[in-house]
Amino acid sequence: MPQITKLRLLLSSAHNPASLLLLRKPTSGSFSLLFTPTKTLRPISLFTPFSSLSKKNRTHLSRPLTQRNHSSLRETGRREKAAPPMEEIGSVGFNKRRAEGNDKSDRPKKILPLKDRKLNPANTICYVQIMGTGMDTQDTSPSVLLFFDKQRFIFNAGEGLQRFCMEHKIKLSKIDHIFLSRVCSETAGGLPGLFLTLAAIGDEGMAVNVWGPSDLKYFVDAMGSFIPKACMVHTRSFGPSAGSSSGDISGSRKFSDPIVLIDDEVVKISAILLRPSLSEYDAEEGRNQYSELVVKPGDISVVYVCELPEIVGKFDPKKAVALGLRPGPKYRELQLGNSVKSDRQNIMVHPSDVLGPSVPGPIVLIVDCPTSSHLPELLSLHSLSSYYGDMSGNPPETSKAVNCIIHLSPAAVTNTKDYQKWMTKFTGAQHIMAGHEIKNVEIPILKGSARISARLNYLCPMFFPAPGFWSLQHLNGSAAGYRALNEVPVSKLCESIPAENLLKFHLRPYAQLGLDRSGVPTTNSPSEIIEELLSEIPEIVDAAQQVNQFCHGFKHTKEDTTPMLNNIVIEEPWLSEYTLPSCLEDISREDMEIVLLGTGSSQPSKYRNVSSILINLFSKGSLLFDCGEGTLGQLKRRFGVDGADDAVRGLRCIWISHIHADHHTGLARILALRRDLLKGVPHRPLLVIAPRRLKRYLDAYQILEDLDFQFLDCRHTTESSLEAFESDTSEMSIENNANGVGLKNQDVNSTLFAKGVPMQSHWNRPDSPVNSVVISILRNLKEVLKEAGLEALISFPVVHCPQAFGVALRAADRLNATGKVVPGWKIVYSGDSRPCPELVKASYGATVLIHEATFEDGMVDEAIARNHSTTKEAIEVGDSAGVYRIILTHFSQRYPKIPVFDETHMHKTCIAFDLMSVNLADLPLLPRILPYLRILFRNEMIVDESDDVVDASVSAAN
């Protein structure tokens, strides 16, 4: 690393008067900051606890698990090629270029053309396959793969698609085209993560075509605010533009005419648009007949028709010889469908003279009729009449036999008599019903993750409750509720089968035409997983008993139980500590719990989803810190389908740390579901607090579908901004607000982005005056927090990328049973960050610090290059701030199951896992489970090189 000039935190008072300060450990839960006059202090490094970690020692730390050493070898060559410019805060380095948003790895690559593949229609293997029937949690749209040996087509890319493909070893690197049946969060939520992965393949990335109705291009372009490589996507939109009025699209017959999208040697793919019936759509939306109706692009749906060319009959050389042809080039011309002149006779020889009967090309329909409002349009489509059977009245020579129809439509539509009658028109077709069938939740599709969850639950159900999808009571209850809501009591007019994950329908070779269930996953119950665990690690029985004993003893007697395993005492010096912070006195189990929904970085993996944390306040609602792709699916895996819906209804606020895709691309799906759940119920728009650059993406989504939210910039929730808000609103009148008189500017010199600090270039412009709209939203925030029993939510800048923040959440003080005032608890979440002064300051006196620990201790250079933290650095932040408990999360996906950690530093710390739930009342026991986790994962502490983690994507998404 090149020699750099140390950045002093304590600058001269002339440049930064607030920089000469002494941070004092205050009472528990306090945000206090003691300013000391310059004359009484000598310059002091705020990061004295980190000073002992010298540059030399950083790269030569002891590694307790040497078998993991090879995990970082892949990174060595990449680091040596081009070392980024480094700066220091105290004695902690960071990548200045990355923090300022100027990292070369984040720059767009050149626009790549699609690969020109040589296709052979005669020998092509082809099938359609169900790729996630709404996952196993009903949180997203089903996806369908149309497979050829040289091409791949995917229909719909909802959240979780990438993780599903990784679980089942389906390569995404050969995707040529992605088709959306609708442009909305349900069908397109997985696109951002998918784009990042495709862009990171190889040296230049991979280009892909994305097709969809309406203003798809605007939607994809909006991703450029957080996906620099979105230029590698070739967007192909069709149909009416956004904002088209009902008059623009209702009177034209051309609207429902087929639009040919692909027509090559192996397949012809056409799109037929469906719009909602204006009368029914109007009634559903509660409008009167005189109101002006604008059909949003997200309301337009598509029927895709996939037609394979016919296979020309077999060439008969005997017939060719009889017609006077000599073997040679003319044989080939005839097989290509061209007529030739006979060599020995004065006649023309036509293909039909020498070829056997042709085999018709298979036809597949993918139908998405999302609501009953779309059904009248579907039933009246003249463009589908040529695909109907004998009852259509079409001449036999014009009829096209459909072999398979995959119905993405929900049961509330497909079970109606009209839809069933329409299905019978396709004589001989195999109908596959893929629209959120209740059968889908019975088998977890992410078996790797489910296996880990079941094992953790066996060891310690206190922190690892059973996933919601494995609760028999939940399944039975949901099934009954699902049938009551969606099924219509009509007799089935048409035979059909429910879709299953990885179910195939073969199209080529023609001899294999039909269904194939060989790849459908089998059930994998918790009992089977535990039986396997007990045979693999017999001593886990004693370990689970020990965990149960000290958990049970803590709940009832709080007496120390020294853990033993096979009569061997596990020496852990902190296990007898029962000194509780005052905020935990007489704490209730219904006060708060932290649910770690996603604990991995960069992209979803087989075992860890990307960042998301639920702060569950039980009867008072909940908050989300970050909302990576698949957050809704994780909620449903943790709480069950119905429980997750309740959690989404009760959301008070969603806070986003920064604009990297692994922290926010699940947001639109959560907002859309909440909108649907609260339809017709009086409620306030959900408050989203995020960096301002994220608003562009959300505004683009708003064009497609109403997300029902209020946006607040993280900068307006910093401590100085909130103090200015409190002081100035008491002095300003409503008239002043109306005249544009706003709050005083935030004191940027009191932040990490102060004048002279390397990141100042991205924080050098003063805040614009806070207008009346922002004041109104801040008042709303204050009211929302009060209703949830919270005192403050404060954002603070951290060192990662431009506009990156951490957050501190403090509960209001309460009275215990004796009338004593008990201070409120305090949670601090780092987001993604290097250790930095603002993070330490915000963490003082915290009850829990949730800190990213992307890299192991021996990868400090990599952590600096990416502006992340190592495990030890994260723990030292908590130790220096005197926090009570530390939860480490956001682990690199190079650690597939459990990260590398040095247990000697973990006296107040625990490793996070997906779906882990930490109740405030159980915090004293949190570090106790670490010795047992080592036992549980003793055979899995080596990096799984077979897991396909694209390291290059880290630079773009992380």
From TrEMBL:
Localization per record: Mitochondrion
Pfam families the UniProt entry points to: Anti-Pycsar_Apyc1, Lactamase_B_4
InterPro entries named in the record: RibonucZ/Hydroxyglut_hydro, RNase_Z/BN, RNZ2-like, tRNase_Z_dom
GO terms for MF: 3'-tRNA processing endoribonuclease activity; metal ion binding
Any one GO cellular component localisation term in the record: mitochondrion
E.C. numbers: 3.1.26.11
Cofactor: Mg(2+); Zn(2+); Mn(2+)
Keywords per UniProt: Calcium, Endonuclease, Hydrolase, Magnesium, Manganese, Metal-binding, Mitochondrion, Nuclease, Transit peptide, tRNA processing, Zinc
Family: Belongs to the RNase Z family.
Assembly and binders: Homodimer.
Protein name: ribonuclease Z
